[in-house]
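Figure S7 source data.
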Amino acid sequence: SAPVLVLGIETSCDETAASIVARDADGRGTILSNVVLSQIADHAAYGGVVPEIAARAHVEALDRVIAAAMDEAGVRFADLDGVAATAGPGLIGGVIVGLTTAKAIAFAAGKPLLAVNHLEGHALTARLTDGLDFPYLLLLVSGGHTQILLVRGVGQYERWGTTIDDALGEAFDKTAKLLGLPYPGGPAVERTAAFGRADRLALPRPMLGRAGSDFSFSGLKTALRIEAEAIAPLSDVDVADLCAAFQQTATAVVRDRIGHALDRFRAAFPDIALPALVVAGGVAANKALRAGLEAELGARGFRLVAPPLELCTDNGAMIAWAGAERLALGLVDDLDAPARPRWPL
Ligand code: KG4
Ligand code: ZN
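Tokens for the predicted KG4 complex:
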């Protein structure tokens, strides 16, 4: 039978994104188009995403972005088998823009609606890019989320760890702001850390050695601020050393927390020879973090699956794909599906 075509719309944060994905009868996916319009420039002056600005920018851009994705794929609404959009969690103004647009297209074209959980989009991306089989572990580290999930199947997720305060990307962004580096902070901290000495300062390593896989980053951020205030005025060398210390400490914390989850996975699924840990989210771009993860995984007999960066950060293909996976199981939604600011998987 012909592959199923799904339009995916993502508007839950500061990317306006749309994509067409095909899923064949064997469950293999192909990305026909993937258009992402970043709003970084709109928010840079404020040092972070401003929800009202984001919602208005989605309204202005979404029609064009969808049209571009349809054109690039050579697909008309009538050709679609489903229309998927992020229904949460996220900034609610943006979510409403994307979900309402998806409902209008689904209604007008007479196609099923798929109201996708954004986190499910991240969780299933590795099946699109790497054809991964269930079960596997997911480490999601973005500006809004820091979670370790067991992915058992479509719609079957267990949250094994989460942050009790700041997300990891948020901690990078706040560190950058504190040290006078530009937004978004993660890439700036990574670039600057390359010139610094990580061992000049000993920062606390929150949760290290604690049972389970939860994270905490606000204490680290506070400790960094106290160190910075003690040294101030900061030279370029000081800033580089602080960035290096922060990045090394954050990596150590992630290694420790993920180590617990790997042990737990091994105990739950002793028959899987080389289990996979998938990374997603913008912080997955960080090379020091990746190297630390790879060392931890190698030592415990796991492999790292890292989808290409443009599919690790927010995009429409992950929503289209999650929609296609749900559609294949008949998990479609009614047109009154709500937009949900909070929606744990
Ligand atoms: O997944 P993403 O693009 O958007 C969401 O938050 O949903 O992630 C953005 C986050 C920001 O906090 C950014 O500072 C961080 O990912 N980030 C990085 C790096 N590149 C992006 N953090 C550390 N190192 C990087 N190279
Ligand atoms: Zn995301």
